[in-house]
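Why does residue order matter? Because the sequence determines the fold. Keep that principle in mind as you read this record.
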Amino acid sequence: MIDPLALGWILAAHWLSDFLFQPHSIASTKGKSWKALALHIVQYVVCMALLTLPLGLGWAFVAWTGALHLATDAWTARLSGWCYRTERIKPFWVVIGFDQLLHGLALVWALSVCGGAS
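Structure:
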C-alpha cells in the first residue's frame, strides 16, 4: 500500500516543479521547441530531486519520474499548444487535464515501484 503522506508530498512536489517553478518562457514554448522541453525536464528533475530525495525515495524514483514526464510532455505540450494556437479552448483544457492525469499516474507508479509503499 502506498503511504498517503508520501503520495501527498510527491503530488505537491510535482505541482511546484511543473507549475510554480516553471518559467513562462518555457511553458509557452515547450510545445514548439525540443530545447525548451529539454530545459523543462531538467528543471523538473532538479526540483523533484531536491523535494523527494529527502524522503528516501532515491535516484531511481527521480529518474523514472523525469523520463515519464518527458514522454508525456513530448506529445501533450504539442497537442495543447496546437489547441491553444487554433483557439480550441475546450480541447486545450481537456489535454491539460489529461496531461496531469498521466503525470499523477506516473508518480503513483514510480512511488509504488521505487519506494514509499508500506
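The helical segments are 4-20, 24-27, 34-52, 58-85, 89-114.
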